[in-house]
Each structure stands twice: as C-alpha cells, then as structure tokens.
User: Fold these one by one.
Assistant:
Number 1:
Amino acid sequence: MKDPAIKPLPGGAPKAVSPWRDLWWRFCEDRVALFAFGVVVLLVLMALFAPLISPQNPYDLSGLSLRDARRPPGFVGSGGYTHILGTDAQGRDLLSAILYGLRVSLQIGITAGAVALVIGTSIGIAAAYARGFVEAILMRIVDLQLSFPPILLALVLVALLGQGQAQLVTALVAAQYAYFARTAFGAASAERSKDYVEAAAATPLSARRIVFRHILPNAMPALIVVATVQIAYAIALEATLSFLGLGLPVTEPSLGMLISNGVKYMMSGRTWISVYPGIMLIILIVAINMVGDHLRDILNPRLDK
Amino acid sequence: MSGFIIQRLLQAILVMAVMSVIVFAGIYSIGNPLEILLPPEATQDVRERTIARFGLDRPVVEQYFYYIRNLLQGDLGRSYIYNEPVLHLISGRLPATIELVLVSVLGALFVGVPLGMLAGYRPDALSSRIIMAVSILGFSVPTFWVGLILILTFAVQLGWLPSGGRGDTAELFGTAWSFLTLNGWSHLALPAINLALFKLAIMIRLARAGTREVMLGDTVKFARAAGLSEWTIMSRHVLKLISIPIVTVFGLELGSTLAFAVVTETIFSWPGVGKLIIDSIKNLDRPVMMAYLMLTAGLFVTINLVVDLVYAILDPRLRKGGAA
Amino acid sequence: MSAPILEVSDLTTHFFTRAGVVKAVDGVSFSVGAGEIVGLVGESGSGKSVTGFSLMGLVDPPGRIVSGSVKLDGEELVGLSWDQLRALRGSHIAMVFQDPMATLNPVLTIGTQMRLAISAHDKTSRRAADARAADVLTRVGIPEARSRLGAYPHEFSGGMRQRVAIAIALLHGSQVLVADEPTTALDVSIQAQILTEMRDLAAETGTALVWISHDLATVSTLADRLLVMYAGRIVEQGPVASVLRDPHHPYTAGLLRSLPATAKPGEDLFQIPGTTPSLLDPPPGCPFRPRCEHASELCTADPPLEMSRDRGVRCFHPLREMVSV
C-alpha cells in the first residue's frame, strides 16, 4: 500500500494499471475490509487443513467415549489431552468438531455458490443474448423466483428431495441462481447495446467469443459481489435448514448441525456446545459479508468520488 | 389506471394457476401418504377404503382438478395428521403469524429508516460506521442463532422475558391477539426482535443508499440554498424521495418475513403457521403443505399488486398517464 | 457604480482529493453593486460554479474555502457557522441552478416546496404562506399561480419549472441572487423570455444578480458588467460594452472571436487552440500561457491584476495598452 509505484493515477489520466490491480489497491484502502479478507483466508485455510490441525478426528467413533460427553472447556479427557472448547453430547472434542464443521459448511456454501454462479450467469447471458421471446420467458421466471423468499423454496425442495449433501446443494442452487441470472442479465444487456459488441456481432466471430471476450469480463465485478454475498447466504441457509432438522445427515455435521445438536443442553447451562460453533459460524458469515460489502462500495460507479 | 389494474390482476391469476400446478406436481411426487394415513397393521380393506376416500387411485391430472374445484369452493382438504379441515387449521394459526410479522416489519421500518438516513447523511462519521456494522451483523447472523442467544440472555440468564408462547390474548374482530395485553407484549417482544433484525438491516441499507444518492443531488443543494434547515431537508425532502424504494421493499419483505417466521416460530414455540408448515414438511402432510404454499404464493401476488398500486400513489409522475 | 452589496476578495476554494489539491477557485476578487447584473463567464471547469457555491457557503467536501473574504452588505460570510449561514441563505443571498428538473423535488407539490422555503425564515400561517407563494409565482410570470400550488414539478414545462425555482429563490427578497446557468437547459425562445423577465425583476426589486454562464453571447445581452474566468481566476473584468468592443485579455479576445455572430459567412468558427488546463496542481504562471499566441518568458510568473478605471486584466501582454488616467 505504501509503495508509491501502485498509487492510482489522477482521474482522467490514462490508466496503465490493470483493472484488477486497481481494484485490489482500492480494496486495500479500507483496513477493516482488509482484515475481514484476512479472516476469510484464514478460515478457508483452517477448513482445508482441518485433518492436520485438529486434535481429534471427530468422525472416528472408536476414539470417542461417552464418559467425556458434555464436558466444559478446559476439561482433560480420557484421550489425555485438554479439550480447549469442551466436548459435545457424543464426547467429541468440540474444537475438532468445529474445524470439521467449518469444512462442511464452507464446502456446501462454495459449491452451491459456484454452481448457482455458473447456472445463473448462463441463463442471464443467454436471455440477454437471445432477446425477444426467450428473454421474456427466462427473465419472467427469474423475477418470479426473486420475489419468493429463498428460505421457503429451499425448505420445500429439501422436503421434496430428501436429505443429503447433493440434495441440499441442489436446493440451495435452486434458491439462489436467480440472483446471478438477474445480475448477469443486467450487465449483459447493458453491454450488448454498446457499439463494439454490435460491431463484433456483425463480424463472423463466434457467439462464444463475444460472450467470453466482451460480455463476461464486464459482468464479472458485479457477479463477484453477488457471489460473495450468496456464498455467505448459502452457508447461513444451510445452517438454518440443519437447525430445523431438514439439512444434512448427522454423520458429518456442519456448523449449523453442531449448533442444533447443542440446543437441548443450552437451557441447562451447558451453553458451550452450541455457542462456540455459533461464534465460528458468525465470524465466517460476517467476514465474507464485509468483504462483499466493501467490494460493492468500491465497484459502485455512482458513488465514486 | 384501471387498465393497468386489470392487466396486473390477470397476471396475478396466471401466476397463481402456474404456481398451483408446480406445487401440486412437486408435492404429489414425494412420499407415500398411505404410510402416514394408515397404521402399519391396517387391513387391505381399510387400505382400499382410504385410497378411495382421498382419491389416491385417480390419475394426477384428475386429482389436481379435483383439488382445484374444491379449492375454489373454499375446501382445502383435511390434514392427514390432525384430521381437521386444513382451512380451519391454518386460519386458527394465521393471526399469530400476522401479528408477529407486522410488529417485526413495522418495528424494523420505524427504527431502520432513521438509522439508515443518519448513516447516509454522514457516511464517514463514527456513528454511521457503527450503524453499518450493526446492519452487517443483522444481515449476516442467522435468525435462528439470534433467537437462541435472545432466549439464552433474556429468558434463561436474566429471566426478564418468557421464552415462548403467546401469553395472554384479547379479542378483536373475533380473533385473539397478543398485542392487546401487556403480558402478550412480553411474549411478543423477543420473537418480534428476532424476526425484525434482518429486516432492520435491510431497511438501514436501503435508507442509507437512497440518502447518499439524494444528498449528492441538486434537490438537496437547492433546498440548502433556500435556507432550509438540515432537519427539514431530511424529514421533508429526503424522506419523501427515498420512500418509494423503501415502500416497495417493505411490501416484498412483508412476504418474505412470513416465510422467515418459520424459523422464529420454531425457536420461540410461537403457535403460528410457520410451525405448522415445518411439522407438515417433516410428516409429509400433503394437504397442509399444499395449502400453506398456495397461501404464501397468493399473499406474494397480492402484496406485489398492492405495492405497485402504492407506488403509483407515491410517485406523482406515475399517477397520470399510467405507464412510466 | 452604486455601493457594493457583495464584495469578494481573494476568494480561494480548493478541493482536497485523493489525487491532489484541485485549485478550483484561486484568488478571485470582484464586487457587485446593489441591483447590478454581473455576468461570470468561463468554460466548464473554469471554476465559475464553485465560485457561486463558495458565495453561498455550499461547497461540498472534499472542497472548502481556504482563504479570502465574501462580504454581503458589509457582513463577512467566510468563517460563519453553518447555522449563521443558513439564516442568510434564501433570505439575503439566494441561488438557482441549471436543471430545474433536478433541483425541484419531484415528489412534493410546488406549494409544499414553497411553504418549506418560506417557513425556513418566517413563521407564518399556511394561508399567508400560500398567498405569498402565489404572489411571487405571479411575479415570475406563472399564470393562475394560486391554483397551481397543488401541482407537481413534472406538470410544468421546462421554462415554467425554472420560473418556479426562481420564485423560490426570490421568496424572501434576497439582496443577491446567484444564478448558475439557469437558462442553459431551456429552449432558446424561452431563454430569451426568462432573461428579459430576470432583468426586469432585478430592476424592480433591487436584487443584484450574479449570472454564471459559459455562453458569452447570452450574458452580454443581460449583464451590466462582465467577469471572465479562466482556470480558477478572473482574467478580465469590465462593463459589458467596453469588454466586448475592446477585449484586453487574449483569452477574452479568443472567446469573442469564437462566437458564431462574429464569424464571416462560409468560414469555420474560430476555436481557441488547446484545451482547458487541469486545475490539479497547476504550474505557476499564467494558466493561459500554453494556448496563447502572445506568451513570452514573462508569462511563467503570475500576472498581477491591473485595474484601470472600470476595467481590469490579468495579463503581461494585454491586447491594447490601457489608457492611463
């Protein structure tokens, strides 16, 4: 940041810096957002390396003892090591369960976000590119879905499809793709009316070239903002569904499932079983949202000073 | 204007018809209702009679039209689980949900809009940054988690407020309402706050974004040049200018809050339709699911319609001539 | 010239942006007599609008008045608190802007907007406020003003809208009205109408007008005196007729030559070569130097303002030596 070489050029002057470099530079201007970004990176790394850094494998049932169940933080269990965050109802080390839960939550959130991104963007661009009847039909469906709360849609779909990771991701994608479609459609239809795209369409270039060279790069910033927000939302939605007992099977609990499992002990004062996974969930979602929020601010040309 | 209304009404009816087909087909495809309707030891005779009674042996299309015909006559079928008419079941619980939703959304509106305007008025001030941090929290933290923490803090630890139920109710228009009694309010407070937080975040964001944009415009500058106080500018000019998107979203959120109430009602044992739908999903209670989804879809369509009309009232440019 | 109602001296307004300091107004001095009409002319980006906002104390951050003085009827405005300034805005010094569609609030009736402007300075009954609003609307040429108070801005034509905006600015009989390109967005025929009406109004009420425009031709038909602004400075000033007949600054001369009226039939319009300089960290010296055919070594220093009788010029090589008295 302090390197004078990457100072932005004064307005109006030709920009030698690539747009992504410039974006990164502007992103770094806000310390809080940069910190949030650091937290997200850290959490992703923790999730990736969960098997290496967690004290116990929470999926290995043979390593668990019910004698260790529901012990407060700091308890030294039969395994001989200290459970820093205590243990859950099955006698699992809570820290390990949280790290693995983080893995599951992130995996579902990112998968759902990515699939929704691809499907939604394709639909949006297809609608903008096809125009006419196809556009009207596709966007009508998208708008209809946008006015319908995603949680309800996900709830019903999970009920229809049954439990499991693939079903859950399908439900999340179905509930979220419309946001990407709307965004991509907006960017693409703004772009298609520009001269160079019309000029490109008049030359014998393939449609693919127009989409990948012209439309997608211009739609990308807005899509990234939507993707960040939607990943956070997918994670929250998954946690909510798990909490309502409609999410994943209990064998590989996500953060939401861990919280749900601890609720019945909450009223009797054993709050840690729910509270710690909850704190992790909130840090994760808040950090992702803060990154998305700041991205939105710096990508909004209307508020550019 | 009336042409506009007719067009919107036709659109709404079409949407409802399409929704009914999709929902019916979706619900028809899951599970076997006989497993729920009959005890495992039921005889073949009982089985056949049940199938005939619910029309389960007919083709889907016929079942659909049968359902629609009954629906138009106000018959939503009987719940498999409660063995009660669905209409009766839902209408008995709807007031609780409506009450919760209205209190939450209105609360979010009256708190969120001023806060958002303040944050948009001085975007760089410390107070604005705090408001925005709160809104990110409200936006991010899942409703169920906030609910748990509210119960843990105010019901379990402090013991100030009850953790569930509707409390005392009083009658109005032949229906029981909690907001008419003090005890009812104490029961309403936590779930309403829980449900309101997310909406509050949305209201803050909308009001802030609108205010920021309006503040940069010439209307505010001209009002300042005329010597209007900042308070008058905010309360008269800016509020009116940002109200159009806020009313739109307010309407749409009213609908989505109805859906979110599912979570809050489950946590706070609030006896509304949200809890009913969760139970019916878990138990594959087809008639209740179907009725709830149609009801929600109907509400959405109605709200969209009303929002469009209010829009036309608020924006004088739309009122004359009809189209924008 | 009568006693000045508005005296501006060495007014300096800078914008402190991320890219550097933009010297939008850089040491501007002029005065306006009561009832006088002064035209402030310059290209876009010359700092004329910022000058107008500086007079009102309405410079948006990151800009602010760095130094200088603005005296309204002898009272210093620079350094007053927001509230003190607010009390003067609209009552003693008022302003209208270019686009009436953007300045008037589209979702409030004209009557409401006028009542708000009245109650900003006077506590009156609604009835009295309505009467006053209707009266001022009539004076700016709006027929059946009383019945139109309930109308929204979009129900007026462009010219009528600007008349409403002018009426709002004149509600309290300000001593000075700053008009920032008020007719630019309007049709030519309506422009002429409003110009005439404004001149009559100013004469009738004794309101001094500071008419900001990029259009030298329009301003010349209206104003008593001209201020020519270039790159944040006033480079030439004097009575309209005198400046038009005998421009001293090469920039003013260039502007005059580029007017369609002065072009010979069949010839291209004259254009001043080069572009307006950036006001971001400008180099010292005369800002017009790069575009000036008379520029010399001398011009790398700042030319001082030379006043002679009612004419003033900031140039080392004025086109005609001023007649000394």
Number 2:
Amino acid sequence: MSIARNITDLADRYDLLVVGAGPAGLAAAARAADCGLSVLLADENPAPGGQIYRAVGTTPVTRPAVLGAEYWKGGALLTRLAQSRAVLAPSCTVWSVAPDAAVGSVEIGVSLDGRARLIEAAEVILATGAQERPFPIPGWTLPGVMTAGAAQIALKSSGLVPAGRIVLAGCGPLLYLLAGQLAAAGATIVAVLDTTPRRNWRAAIAAFPDFLRSPYLAKGLALMAKARARLPFRNGVTDLSAEGEDRVTGVRVTRGGASETIACDTLLLHQGVIPGVNLSNAIGCAHEFDEDQHCWVPQVDQWFASSVPAVAIAGDGAGIGGAESAALRGEIAALGAAQRLGRLSREQRDAQAAPIRAALARSLRGRRFLDLLYKPAARFLAPPDDATIVCRCEEVTAGQIRDTASRLGVTGPNQMKAFLRCGMGPCQGRLCGPTVVELIAQAQGLSPAEVGYYRLRPPVKPITLGELAALPQSDAAVKAVVR
Amino acid sequence: MFRPITDADSGASLNFSFDGRAMRGRAGDTVAAALLANGVQACRQTPVSGAPRGPYCMMGVCFECLVVIDGVGNRQGCLVPLREGMRVETQAGRRQPEEIPA
C-alpha cells in the first residue's frame, strides 16, 4: 500500500476508485488490488477504519475490554490493505462522481490538502456507509445533545467520554453497545431511556428463531442483557424533549403516562442507522424504500452494481447489514468490478465469490429481527410538536413542513425545499431528509415510498470557490462561456 | 464537556487557540474533539437565528461543528486534524452588510 498525502500524488486514472475506508471499502480495495486492478481508496477522515473501526490503528484507548472484541477485528482489515498494492488517500473528499457512458469512464472530483482535481476511474465502488437516523425531538439542536455514534467516535479516536451526568435515549444495538462501552470507560450514566415500542415485538417475534440461529447476534444479545442488568434502563419511553437555554441541562421524559425531568450535562440520541445516500443519489442511482429497515436504499444487483453503469455500492450504504457483512459485500463488489474490467473470467469470479456469499448469508441471518424490533415509533420519525426543528441547518420546523404539505399540497420533498429551504443548508438534507419525507407522507396520507426523496446534486461535500476555479479547464469548456 | 478516560495514552500535546484563548490538545485529535476536551460546547452560531450549536455527529454528516480555522471559514472541525499553533474561531452566523469591509 502507498499513501497519497498531496493532490499531486494521485494518478490521472485508476482502474477502480473506492470511496470510503470502512470495512466495505477496505475489503473491496484490497481484493481488487489482489486481482491486479490499480486502486485508489479515498476517505475524508484522517485515518482508515470508517466509523465502526474508527481509529483502530491509532486509538489512544489502551485497555481492549473498553471497546470490546468486535472492534479490534478491524485491525486485520487494515493489515490486509497495508499488504496490498492499493493507494490510500486519507483526508481526501470525493465531491463528484460523473459516469460518462460514451467515453466509458467515470470523472471523479476530489479534494485533498485544500486543492481540487478531476481524475478518472474505469469503475467506482461507493463504500460510504451509514449515518445515524435523524432523531428530531424538541431541543435536539442544543449544544450537549449529540448522537450516540458521536460519543463513540470521541471514545475510539480520542479516548474521551462526556464529563458529568450522561443520559442515553432511543433504541437499537448501537445505543446499548455504547452504554456498555461508556460504563466500562468509567463514565457516569444516569439513565438509558429506551424508546423501543412494545408493539414491535408482535412483528419481530416471527423473525426471532432465525435470530437465535445467528451466533454473532446471540453474542450481542448476551452483552445487551448484561448492560441492562447493570445500567439504569427505563423502558417504554413514549416522549422525549431536551431542555436548556444555551446548552442541554435536562431531559423531559414520559413513560406510562407520567413525565419527569432528569438533569444531565450530555444527552446522547440514537434510533438506528440508515444508508448515507447523498453520493449515490447525486450520481443518479435508482433507490427504493425498504419497509423493514424503514429507509431509502440504492437498488443493486447480486454483484452490488447500481442502476448506473460502472458504479457499485457495497457495505451499509447499500442497506444496513453490519460490519461483518459490509466487508464481505466489499469483496463481492470488487470481484464484480474485476470481471467487468476483464481481469477475471465469469467462472473465476463466481468461484471466488461462492464461499464469500455463504459467509454473507450467515452474517445477515437474524438481521430482520433487529430491524423489526427497533423500528422507531411514529412520533420519533415525524415529530408531533409543531415547534420542533426538523432542518437543523435552515431551522425549519415540523409545523412549517406539516402546514406547507397540507395547505399548499406540495408535490414532494423537492418542492418543499424550494418553499421552505429545508435541505438547502450545508448538510444537504442528511439530517432532515428522512423526517421531511415522513411528515409529507403523514400529512398527505401517502407512504414514504410514494413521497420520494430529495434530488441531490454534486458537489456532495462543500469545496471552496477557489478550488473550483483552479481546476484545469478544457478548451471547449472555456469557449462555452466566452462571449 | 468531555474528559480523557484513565485507560488512554495521553500522547503528545499541542498548543492551539479558540477565539484567542490558549488551549492544549492531544496530537491525533480532530479540532472538534480538542474543543470538546477543552470544555467548548458551542462552536458556531446559526445563520438564521444566531442560536449556538456544537458538534453533533462527529463524522462529517451534520455540519454542526463548523469553525473558522486559520482564517478559512466553514471548516468541518470533526474532519480536520489538530495542528500545532492552529487558530480556531467561532463560525459566526449571518453577517450584516455593515460588517463587511468595503
């Protein structure tokens, strides 16, 4: 492996660009390089690992038990990449991916060390992973309110935990895992407020036998039971709001019809993870609404190729499956790309993929139980309180969106964006898109699948005007604007 | 406010400033993590209402940790590694016309 630290270290063209150095990207890049492809693995973070294996090669945390055995498995993926011939570009932002079927290559806009450049790749694998599902409650914009994932990142990459009183709220495996990790690290957890709707058990129970056959998940269940026994869990939470003036000072919680305020210095929210679709959406890949996972996912074939030629999507970005499945999906996507580029015959590709597919099926067993059990309650997907901020960037409230959806009868999220500016801020809808869809669906009696999603466009990450202006221009591009 | 756990290497220390206040951070931390470790909860004001905001996702998604770094505005603090002597400032909200030099 070599490392590209400057924009000039990059070649003009690679066989394969992999975006994102989490489990899927690390595995895809190493596998593709082993197949003889020239590979660039670009990641916007300073170190590889993605979020699940965040800083696994550089973490200051010295006692392995604090982060748990699953975390340290990421080290093997880093070693494998290091032994491959792939090029790793850390702190490198991919802001545009533009396939050109006529030329048979993909134009990639990258930014590294404050400078932008356009390079080419024959194939692209998006391994941009997941983000936490937005959790819009009153007061969630107050400083001191963060996602559970944010606290986990601070712990993994910096050995930091919130000082003072911590409340965790929401549902899903990551929340319980983090509660255990924070407790092991010596943090003060005053409450874990569990919002898992009791009625979810009815839908999930049918998938329970399959879940029990998964050794990986059963182990997770044991960990969760241990955390529940030791930590101050409160189940059946039906309403939440964060309180405070210029920072969070407490959480108002309702359960069993009674409300109380719990004083805290930090509130950590989590209600599952969803694919980050900004790049795949901006490329024009077809997406569909997954009812079980209750989120938009890109459509992919059995080699994880998207609807757009030369663009594949591996890992949690193509549907939530967890770290182990992400790495396996990365391998299969790499084999698919290698075959399309003529480095593997179909027979070789299929033979190499067969054992990986078997492992993938095992790793996904029982997943559906988790999806159904931890599906968020309707009120945490579409906030009933009109004053709750939905678009954090432009400070657009649930009431404004509801009102605009019902009175003006907007045709969808894109018209809502034009009317209210929701989704037009720097996060480009990452933190409001799912909620806006939910509110429109509710107001108009439609399903999220019928409402659709924002139409996103590059650049998918901000770059400076200076970077754009300094890009080399073709003669044709210059003449197109000369009068 | 965040604090280091006892089971962590303290590592090399770096000097930086936030709104002119001298601070120390751990080499290897991002700007956003270093601010949290120094007790800074709010690092920007929104352009709409001027409300204070602080790091929310720490993974480049939410853009709440925007700060000015060495004079360059709207940098995502959670993606930028801390460097010796860095000058970090609050990302102010909307500017008024009279504040902009002619």
